[in-house]
């Protein structure tokens, strides 16, 4: 199973903000859409970075109330790891686990096509394993 299959099932909707968006605006997007991260995009729809709930919390711990005066561009993670539609679920899971992050933008020919979360990856992996178990049961019982 690949990232393309996850996006086909999940959809291609991605929430983003501009680098000048305030932390207040960014947090409003996170809260209203019930998501854990937003992408930071420029006017040409180029991926500049990502800001997650964790980034906001870490900044609050380090900077206190000054965090509220910051922008998405100041808070974002700039070195964003990305997946491609052909990336396997296992590869995506390994990237997220090794990098200790929960959101992975998906690019096709340098164009953003989606965003997957660790929840999406785990759900896909569970579905994949359930299918394998069903196939093995059918094989063992001779109904395949």
Q: H/E element string?
A: HEHEEHHHEEH
Global structural class: alpha+beta
Strand order of the largest sheet: 1-2-3
Number of discrete domains: 1
CATH fold call: CBS-domain
Uncertain segments are: none
Mean pLDDT: 93
Descriptive notes:
By secondary structure, the protein is an alpha+beta fold. It has one domain (3-141): CBS-domain (Roll), CATH 3.10.580. It has six helices and five strands, in the order H-E-H-E-E-H-H-H-E-E-H. It has a three-stranded mixed sheet with strand order 1-2-3. Strands 4-5 form a two-stranded antiparallel sheet. Helix 5 packs across helix 6. The longest helix has 24 residues, at 118-141. The chain is elongated.
Pick out its properties.
144 residues; alpha+beta; CBS-domain; three-stranded mixed β-sheet; two-stranded antiparallel ribbon; 6 helices; 18% strand
In brief, what are we looking at here?
With 144 residues, this protein is of the alpha+beta class. Helices cover 48% and strands 18% of the residues. The mean pLDDT is 93.
Helix and strand topology:
Blueprint: H1 3-10, E1 16-17, H2 23-33, E2 37-41, E3 47-52, H3 53-63, H4 72-75, H5 89-99, E4 103-108, E5 111-117, H6 118-141
Parallel strand pairs: 1-2
Antiparallel strand pairs: 2-3, 4-5
Helix pairs in contact: 5-6
């Amino acid at each position: 199973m690949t990232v393309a299959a996850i996006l086909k099932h999940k959809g291609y909707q991605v929430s983003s903000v501009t680098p000048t968006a305030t932390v207040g605006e960014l947090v409003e997007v996170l809260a209203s859409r019930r998501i854990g991260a937003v992408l930071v995009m420029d006017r040409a729809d180029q991926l500049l970075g990502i800001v997650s709930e964790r980034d906001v919390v870490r900044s609050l711990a380090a900077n206190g109330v000054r965090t509220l005066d910051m922008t998405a561009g100041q808070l974002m993670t700039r070195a964003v790891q990305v997946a491609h539609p052909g990336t396997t679920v296992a590869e995506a899971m390994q990237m997220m686990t090794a990098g200790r992050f929960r959101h992975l933008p998906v690019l096709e020919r340098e164009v953003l096509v989606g965003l997957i979360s660790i929840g999406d990856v785990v759900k896909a992996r569970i579905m994949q394993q359930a299918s394998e178990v069903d196939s093995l049961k059918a094989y063992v019982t001779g109904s395949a």
